[in-house]
Amino acid sequence: MNRTSPYYCRRSVLSLLISALIYAPPGMAAFTTNVIGVVNDETVDGNQKVDERGTTNNTHIINHGQQNVHGGVSNGSLIESGGYQDIGSHNNFVGQANNTTINGGRQSIHDGGISTGTTIESGNQDVYKGGISNGTTIKGGASRVEGGSANGILIDGGSQIVKVQGHADGTTINKSGSQDVVQGSLATNTTINGGRQYVEQSTVETTTIKNGGEQRVYESRALDTTIEGGTQSLNSKSTAKNTHIYSGGTQIVDNTSTSDVIEVYSGGVLDVSGGTATNVTQHDGAILKTNTNGTTVSGTNSEGAFSIHNHVADNVLLENGGHLDINAYGSANKTIIKDKGTMSVLTNAKADATRIDNGGVMDVAGNATNTIINGGTQNINNYGIATGTNINSGTQNIKSGGKADTTIISSGSRQVVEKDGTAIGSNISAGGSLIVYTGGIAHGVNQETGSALVANTGAGTDIEGYNKLSHFTITGGEANYVVLENTGELTVVAKTSAKNTTIDTGGKLIVQKEAKTDSTRLNNGGVLEVQDGGEAKHVEQQSGGALIASTTSGTLIEGTNSYGDAFYIRNSEAKNVVLENAGSLTVVTGSRAVDTIINANGKMDVYGKDVGTVLNSAGTQTIYASATSDKANIKGGKQTVYGLATEANIESGEQIVDGGSTEKTHINGGTQTVQNYGKAIR
Q1: Which pLDDT tens digit goes with each residue over 108-160?
Q2: CB–CB of 497/457 below 8 Å?
Q3: 11 φ, ψ to 5°?
Q4: What span, in angstroms and rounded, lies between the C-alpha atoms of 249 and 493?
Q5: Cβ atoms within 10 Å of 315's Cβ, excluding its own
Q6: Contact predicate 266/288, CB 8 Å
Q7: Which has the closest alpha carbon to 513: 528, 497, 535?
Q8: Whether pTM exceeds 0.85
Q9: Extents of the domains making up the chain
Q10: Which residues contact 19 (CB under 8 A, 6 or more apart)?
Q11: What is the DSSP letter of 494?
């Protein structure tokens, strides 16, 4: 064939083209390397240049691929692992990358470059000086703004660092997201929505912290912060101004930092430990946590102006979780402690004229003077001393090693002296209570009529003072001339004694096993409880006095009852006992009771034998299985029989035979009910 013929030439060219396609070396570009105009849907695995004349759409940048958008436009690129996109200017034209997705690769934005709407699934975005990133969403991976600007960024699981005078504006940091603002950078209009922001040697302005978000500030400035539900901490000589703290929000000011112009609302927390907080407005329900150890705080609360300066706290208000520590050699004046507020007066510290309202707590290990307790609690701990406390309502607890002097205990209030605690000169007004635990000390007590003393004769208990009748003592295991009324109670413990005790309305004397009492006067409304094995001699029981006892072997009670008759319980027998007004007698198996009188609200339980009991109106007696009752006289009371009752006389009231038996019952106006297979034999 003629090689110069047109047919041959055409065939040769075609062969060369086919050969070129068949034998193209691996990695040869299958994309446009220098984009002029518009190219779509290319995969870049080498170098591609997009200048001001070019636009790419939906480019796929894979491993070893690099797209340089210098003055041009890239839309919808996907940057895979090992892929790289560089955005900058060219010939004064701005390079633009729109709606890029980074999935393991990297995007760098230089001077004159703008990235808009980038999504970082994984991988990195770098924004250098003069570069701008708008509307980036960081789901994973990281963004680094090094001297550049980032606007409207959403950090939703990844991280961003703004450094070397970079600027981030309008950032939202969600939970699991984080942003670091360092090296002279600026963050403005940030919302920390459960995420974390770290600020060092930089400035943050107009920040909102909510949903448990956290901002940590070091050697920096924080301006115009709103804390709705999270924490801002100022550290290492940081400053803050114009902070608003709402419920669930906290600002922490460390011992080198300063915060100025602070509005703290109900449920918000201002925590200042050694630092400075000025121009504070503490609204009702706001929480202040602070101390006097180098701390400076000043502002207003609902009571007026307050301050902490030079180790002195004046007019501080604590409530809703607020707390004040008065450190060693510090002092506090006119502190008000409301519900859930607490104050600790530490060793060698002083507090004067404190008011503790309902729910407030004051702990004292130093000195507290002229405290007023209006429903709250004052704890006097080891080495603590409280002088001149007035308990209008609420409680003063004197712990081991603590001491209270000259306390007024008003109606509805109480003073509690624990083991090795000491109360001197306590005045108990009507309705007030002095409670002394085993081993507690109370000297110079003035027990007014209608007040309550609660104590016992246990080891180390040492009480002396005056009641409405005489001088009284409880010391060395012996109580003398104690008056019990209005919830007052004395427990005589084993191997100790009480003499000349008076039990008035609301008072109670408890005599434990192997304990002894002598010459007890049991008046109307009082209770004498002699436990099994206890001893009470020369009891004078007045009408309405309640005796609680049993016929258990070893129990010994002797005296006169409200009818002037001698009565006793001894040697497993009770005779002439009167039960009324919540008084009760248990007749145990193998013992007996004779001629008992049960008046209104008296009760008798018989497991042994009973003879000649009189049940008057509203009195009750129960005869249990295997127990017997003989010749009971029921005059308005109620007898329930599970055992055997013989020759009962029912004048009024009721006898219920509930599975038990009766014999020779005389019914003269009352009723007898037989149930549950009971038997009544006449």
Answers
A1: 999 999 999 999 999 999 999 999 999 999 999 999 999 999 999 999 999 99
A2: yes
A3: -65, -35
A4: 54
A5: 18
A6: no
A7: 535
A8: yes
A9: 31-36+50-189, 371-542, 543-680
A10: none
A11: T
